[in-house]
Design brief:
A hairpin with a 5-residue loop joins strand 8 and strand 9. A 5-stranded parallel sheet has the order 2-3-4-1-5. Strands 8-9-10-11-12 form a 5-stranded mixed sheet. Strands 6-7 form a two-stranded antiparallel sheet. It has 21 helices and 12 strands. With about 475 residues, it is α/β, with parallel strands linked by helices. Helix 10 crosses helix 19 and helix 17 packs across helix 18. It is globular.
Length: about 475
């Protein structure tokens, strides 16, 4: 089993209460059982499993890209080390022989069998999943064996392990798709930071467990950003290239696509034109980027079936930060002047970078509150809206301009909507921003009655709002999101 010092595990492990509760429920039920855990790289799957199996009898094997026979050999060693410690001269030529050995030697104790990074092995051994299915159904059917299969290749786990076509279909007790931490759980990694710095910490890490674990909460957010991104030995300095290299044989197209999305190009045809590739080629790589959890496809919340209203956005805000700032700074960083670059170029526009991150936080907050009926209706969906609006100027002339609403949360049951505007700036929200949101509320589909207008501001509000007495208007600050 992968061993970590217990104090180290305790220090590292934060959050994941629901996932641990699910695994406990799975473990407490006697008999044969299987659960699937999957999610993108660095998200904390192995850490979650390590925490769960602590002090439990466990065979913990992490597969690697070494082929079928070598994985069998290494897995066999783990099995023997647990069930017959000290014995050196046992070897197995087939996976069935190892599984039979487990059957004969596990006794009556409850045993956990973990195969982490399953796709690395299963992709090179077409029979592995079928053999595992046979043993679950027959040989191990009366055993107190709990099987955990884990993988980072989302498409493989969904198509080969979870789908109806999988030999294992119908055998699992549960599955956990591990996602990035939300901004509230991310804040637990830096409990002594101000709320503004907690938000920035969430923004630069995207809530990804591995990146959050690299933050030294005894140092300032600026010191952490410089150490991780703006030094050649920083963990995140080469992280995007490392991840793309692991997932793509030719990273050039994937890199160019991510670069365009990070710069604000969200439509397939525009991305294809910008990088000089045909749309089908770009779409293939986009789907791969979606499968590995780096990009997501978003629709306009009240018009999600309209394919023309589709945007591709980065799911990982660390990638957005990296592509926005690091490529332009590479030569300066390699000269050892990354901190100077950060202070002069990056820090002054950090609030601007945080704009989309803050919007995401506000949507999460609105949904979380709306589920409890906070806004007088049962909110079940939160997203964004974009389109066009007609503006009439003082001379009576009308012009058309693009328009968007940062937060649109919908109650399909009550046919109501909550809309919001978010500003992560060192400027107070003023009357003009208020009037714009009220006006754009009229653009939302008429079947939804707007029950609340919510404003989210980092720096508060101008004096004009003191005379505002509208009951359907909520004025919130960053601190409101962390209460």
């Amino acid at each position: 089993m992968n061993e970590l010092n217990e104090l180290e595990i305790f220090y590292m492990f934060i959050g994941r209460e629901r996932e641990l509760a699910s695994l406990k429920e799975f473990y407490d039920k006697d008999g044969i059982g299987m659960t699937i855990i999957y999610g993108r790289r660095r998200i904390g799957k192995s850490t979650l499993i390590t925490e769960f199996v602590r002090n439990k009898k466990t065979i913990f094997y992490t597969a690697t890209k070494v082929g079928k026979n070598r994985n069998l050999e290494l897995f066999s060693r783990q099995v023997v080390d647990l069930l017959m410690p000290g014995v050196e001269d046992i070897s197995f030529h087939t996976i069935e022989a190892v599984f039979d050995f487990i059957h004969k030697n596990m006794g009556n104790d409850k045993l956990i069998l973990v195969i982490d990074e399953l796709p690395y092995w299963a992709e090179k051994d077409d029979a592995l999943l079928s053999i595992l299915q046979k043993y679950i159904d027959t040989i191990w059917s009366d055993k107190n064996l709990k099987i955990i299969l884990c993988g980072s290749a989302l498409s493989f786990m969904e198509k080969k392990v979870l789908s109806e076509k999988s030999p294992l279909f119908g055998r699992r007790d549960s599955q956990i798709k591990l996602e990035a931490f939300d901004y509230l759980d991310a804040a637990k990694f830096v409990p002594h930071y101000s709320n503004e710095d907690k938000a920035i910490c969430y923004g630069i890490t995207g809530g990804v467990a591995k990146y959050l674990s690299m933050i030294d909460s005894t140092k300032s957010i600026d010191e952490n950003i410089v150490r991780l991104f703006f030094k050649t030995d920083g963990y995140l300095y080469d992280e995007t290239r490392n991840l793309l290299t692991q997932e793509f044989s030719d990273i050039a197209i994937a890199n160019n696509i991510v670069e365009q999305i990070a710069s604000g190009q969200n439509a397939l045809n525009i991305i294809a034109a910008k990088i000089g590739e045909k749309e089908p080629t770009v779409l293939y790589s986009l789907e791969k980027l979606i499968n590995v959890g780096l990009v997501e496809k978003k629709g306009c919340i009240t018009d999600e079936k309209n394919k023309k209203k589709t945007q591709y956005v980065l799911k990982d805000y660390m990638f957005k930060f990296w592509y926005q700032f690091i490529p332009k700074a590479t030569s300066v960083i390699e000269m050892g002047q990354g901190e100077v670059y950060y202070q002069k170029v990056v820090k002054p526009v950090l609030h601007s970078f945080m704009g989309t991150v803050f919007e995401d936080m506000c949507r999460y907050y609105t949904l979380k509150q709306g589920i409890t009926g906070e806004y007088g209706c049962f909110i079940t969906l939160a997203g964004t809206w974009w389109g066009v609006e007609n503006i009439t100027d003082k001379n009576g002339e009308t012009r058309t301009q693009s328009a968007d609403i940062d937060v649109v949360a919908i109650s399909e049951i009550d046919k109501k909507a909550v809309i919001g505007e978010c500003k992560f700036k060192n400027e107070k929200i003023d009357k003009g921003i208020y009037e714009t949101l009220i006006r754009r509320g009229n653009l939302i589909n008429a079947k939804y009655k707007i029950s609340k207008y919510i404003f989210f501001s980092l720096s508060g509000y101008t004096d004009w709002f003191e005379s505002l007495s509208e009951e359907d208007v909520l004025l919130l600050t960053l601190d409101s999101l962390y209460q």
